[in-house]
Amino acid sequence: MPLHWTIDSQQKLVTAVAEGNVTRPEFVAFLDDVDRAGAENYRKLFDGERGETHMEAEEILALGARMRAAAERGRVGALAVVVPTTHAAALGRVLGMLAAAERPMRVFRQVGPARKWIRGQRRAATVS
Question: How many domains would you assign to the chain?
């Protein structure tokens, strides 16, 4: 499976790493796990540096709509997204949808700066 994730309840951090072609069912499984764990308000680091997708635009927008709906239902945690330059344009509309949520969010080209930034968001994740 090209999408792997951990949900750390102590750190209030969800980390997802894409390596290869991520399909819609795999991403839906990830979102389902986050929902089941009650981790919507956790900080999230999505490392797509080595990932890709062959999803159609409609599939990507549907996933973006689901994530946006979660943000509208309640407080969501900070989000750091690592996207290679070659994929930034394809994901631009979804990232725009996610940026509208009331949470800190940044897009990075490398995972190191993304990890450093998301760690600095710790206080926001613990405030109710």
Answer: 1
**Pairing between β-strand 13-21 and β-strand 79-82 as defined by DSSP bridges:** unpaired
Give the domain CATH number at 112. 3.30.750.24
pTM of the model: 0.85
Q: Which domain holds residue 68?
A: 3-126
CA distances (Å), origin 107, targets 26, 35, 48, 87, 126 = 22, 23, 11, 12, 22
Q: What backbone torsions phi and psi does residue 127 show, to the nearest 5 degrees?
A: -80, 135
Confidence check: pLDDT of 42 > 60: yes
d(CA 108, CA 46): 10
